[in-house]
Write a structure and sequence with these properties.
Distance between the termini: 21 Å
Order of helices and strands: HHHHHH
Helix content: over 70%
Largest sheet: none
Oligomer: single chain
Mean pLDDT: 96
């Protein structure tokens, strides 16, 4: 169902973030094409695509979504759209230091949303 689908989407975004972090931290070679692929994977799963995966009341196990998502939908929507927008900073990075800075900003959006709307 939708809970499994959104958990899979979140895992895919996590994996994309990990590949970007490896390049940003010098643990993998910086590759602009790979940055674009990873950033696009995050962008495609954020914004409206993310919001569609959270129909009201979809909190059944194993969901970690808090009911606050639906009582503060504008806040959740803002986070989803901000994440989508910030992926542009990832694709604009032309070297590891710029990628690291952009990745920090994107990760901050993820962390804020998780702190507000996720149970763990």
């Amino acid at each position: 169902g939708v809970v499994k689908e959104r958990m899979d989407q979140m895992k895919a975004m996590r994996d994309a973030m990990k590949s970007l972090a490896a390049m940003a931290n010098g643990k993998a070679a910086f590759d602009r094409a790979a940055v674009g692929v990873a950033a696009n994977a995050i962008r495609e799963k954020s914004g409206a695509a993310m919001m569609q995966l959270f129909p009201e009341g979809s909190t059944q196990h194993p969901s970690e979504a808090l009911p606050k998502i639906w009582t503060d939908w504008p806040g959740f929507e803002f986070g989803a759209k901000t994440l989508e927008m910030r992926t542009g900073q990832l694709t604009a990075a032309e070297e590891p230091a710029a990628l690291k800075k952009a990745l920090g900003e994107v990760a901050g959006v993820c962390k804020d949303c998780h702190n507000r709307f996720r149970s763990r």
